[in-house]
Amino acid sequence: SQVYAAVHHAAWLAAFLWLAAMSVNLARLLLCKMRPSSGTRCSRDFIVMAFLCWGIPVSVAGVCLALDINGFVDIGYGAAGVCFIGNAHSMLAVWIAPLMAILLLTIVCCLLVVRIVLKITPAQNKAPTKQSARRNQAVMCLFLSLLMGGNWIFYLVAAAKGDNDILWNLSILLNGCQGLYVMLCFVAKRS
């Protein structure tokens, strides 16, 4: 159960790091588009992102597992029937703090992308009117923010408020619909 809990920990960290990598990459690409003189190195960037997004979580969970098994630090992997981190202090240090840092980076990139999209003029948007161009921008910003993890803000608010069932249910609903957001953005299009 300790190994499963460590794999579970690494998988969740990897999922959030990939979300952050996607957000950073999208923000960087949009910034590069605004500055035509700068270039991109897509294939090398993907290898670096893959190494970071898988390497960091596996390293963190591996070190935590080794420390837990050898008794140097009580991480609490698999303790008390929990298939994750059973020690509250360790949970804060090796899960909640890194998660908050990753989400903060993701939210900053999301806000940057929304800001860039809002700078697009109606003429560049190929919309018939300025009002429809703004509506298109608003829909695009909403979908991009959902894809880039903006919905996790509701998790942070629910966690800060504690035992507010309405916030927790809203957080679970919005974060559980990630596949729906992908479908709406890439599959359910008119074109």
TrEMBL record:
InterPro entries (UniProt xref):
GPCR_2-like_7TM (IPR017981), GPCR_2_secretin-like (IPR000832), GPCR_LN-TM7 (IPR053231)
Compartment(s) of residence: Membrane
Species in which this protein is naturally found: Elysia chlorotica
Name all G-protein coupled receptors family 2 profile domain ranges: 1-190
Task: Give the UniProt record's GO annotations in the biological process aspect.
Answer: cell surface receptor signaling pathway
Q: Which Gene3D superfamilies match?
A: Rhodopsin 7-helix transmembrane proteins
The membrane topology term of the UniProt record is: Multi-pass membrane protein
Q: Which GO terms describe its molecular function?
A: G protein-coupled receptor activity
> Where in this chain does the entry annotate a coiled-coil region?
none
Sorted alphabetically, the Gene Ontology cellular component annotations on this record are:
membrane
- Record bears the keyword Transmembrane helix: yes
Its recorded name reads G-protein coupled receptors family 2 profile 2 domain-containing protein
